[in-house]
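We give the entry.
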Amino acid sequence: MFLPTTKDEVIQRGWNQLDIILITGDTYIDSPHIGIAIIGNLLYKAGYKVGIIAQPLEDEIKRLGEPRLFWGVTAGSIDSMVANYTAIKKKRKQDDLTPAGKNDRRPDRASIYYTNLIKRHYKKTKPIVLGGIEASLRRIAHYDYWDDTIRRSILFDSKADILVYGMAEQTIINLAEYISKNKKIDDLRGICYISKKGREDYLPLPPFEKVRQDIQSFIDMFNIFYENNDPLTAKGLFQRHNDRYLIHNPPAFYPTQEQIDSFFELDYERDVHPFYKKQGYVRALDTIRFSITSHRGCYGECSFCSISIHQGRRVISRSIRSILKEVEEITHLKDFNGIISDVGGPTANMYGIDCQKKSIYGGCKGKCCLYPTICKKLNIDHHAQIKLLKKIRSLSGIKRVFVASGLRYDMILNDKKNGINYLHEIIQHHVSGQLKIAPEHTEGEVLSLIRKPSKEYLLEFKKHFDLLNKRLNKNQFLTYYFMSAHPGCEMSHMYKLKQALIRELKMIPEQVQIFTPLPSTYSSLMYYTERNPFTGEKIFVEKNLKKKQRQKDIIQKKNFN
C-alpha cells in the first residue's frame, strides 16, 4: 500500500494531520530495496500517520502541511554528491531514481538543502531527523572530495536536530516513540545529536578544528570512529565543534533474523507511486522490481566501500521461509515474466554465513574477516545458498533465478566442502550469460591498500569457472570490475594491469571505474592524507583529474599500449 504523497490522499484516509513526513532525494518507489519505503511502512505499521514527499522543490515541501511529531529527511539511496557528479567531478546527466531519468531533481548536498527548505517555510517547526546513507557517512567530521576539505558533521551544516545512522529501522521506531511520549533521547542507540557539553562516559574524538588542520589528528579520529561501530563493543563518542559538541551514541544492535524478515514482509507495492509515475519512467525499477535481498552486511571491509560503516561488518541473513514468501508474492504481480533478476546482497555468496565469535563478542579489533587471509573462525559454507536457490527455482511460476550481485571468489575457493558445488550450481542455473566479480586490480601494492585478495585467487577462480563452463557445455563469461586511480595506484600499475588482462585473462573489461573517495571510508582517508593509515607510510595519490582519466584510458582505449 502506498503512503500518501498528496493532501488529497491524506484526506481520503480520513486523516487531519500527519504524524511524520518523510522527505527523500529519490522518487517514491514502494519497494523493500528503498530505505524510505521500509522506514515509512514500518512507522505506519507501528500506528503512525506517515506521508512521503519525493524530490521536493521550493513550495512542494508544504504539500502535506506540517507533521505532528517530526520530519524525516534523507538524500536518498545514494549520497547526493555521488549521484550528481562523476569521479572526475563532471555533472551526471542521468539519474535512474528520477522520473524520465533526467538528473534535474536531486539537489547537491540534499540533506542540507531539504532541511533548509523546511526551515525556510516553517520557522519554528517540529524536530528534523536526518537519515540515509548521506547522513550516515557524514555524521562526524569527514573529508569531502567535492570541496577537497574536512567538513563538519552534517548535523551542524544542516542545522537538523537529530541524526539516525546505519539501517535505522529499530532506531526510528524507538525515536518516534520517544518523541511522541516526550521522553529524553540522550541514550537512544543509533543516533547523533548536538549538545552544549561532551559526555564523561563517552570517548572524545579530536575536535573538528584540530582534525581540519592536523593530518595525524584526522587519522587518529577516524581510527577511533571506525573501531567503535560494532554494536557489541562500541563506546559512545563525542566531538567538539567550536563551542558545541556532537554526541554520537553507540550503534543500534543488529536486527535478529525474525526482525529482518519482518522488514521485508511489509505490504510493498513494488512500483513507483502513481503521482510520480505519470512524470516518466524510473529506470531503477528495472533492477529492483523482481529482485530479492537475501541478507545485509559484509565481511569484506574493502577500503573504498561504505557498507561496513552503514550496514555493518556482520552478515544478517533472512530465513528461507521469508524469502520464499516474497518470491511467491512476486509471482502474482501482473507483469511478472517468471524471472527473478537477482538473489543477493552486498556480496551474494555471504548468505547464511556467520561468525559465532562475532555474533557473541563483536568484531575483532584491528582484524578483517577476509583480509589479508580469510579468518579460520569464519565458517564459510555455501550450503545455505545452494539450498535457497534450489527452493526458489522449484516454485511454481518461476522460470529462471539469476544471481546478479557480485561474488567473493576467494570465499568460494576457501570453501573446500561446497565452494565448487556452489559454483557449479551458479553456472548451471543462475548466470544470465555473465557472472559479476570485482577484482578491482591485479597488482599487489594496490590490492593491499584496497584490502582485496591477490591476483592468484582470481586466476584460480577463472580456471574453475572455465572448466565448469566447458563441462556443462555453457558459453558464459566473467564480468570484471576494475578500479583506476585508487590511492597507491600509479600509471605503471595500470600498464601492468593491462598486460595482466591481455596475457592472463585474455580480455579488456568494459567496467573500469575511477576511484571516488566516499566520506568516512579508509580509502578517502588515504586520499586526503596521502598516507597508508595502517602503517603510516607515505603513499602516492593521483589527484590530477586528467591523469585520473588517463589511468582509466590505459585500460579501455586502444591507443594506450
Summary: The longest helix spans residues 455-471. The chain has a mean pLDDT of 97.
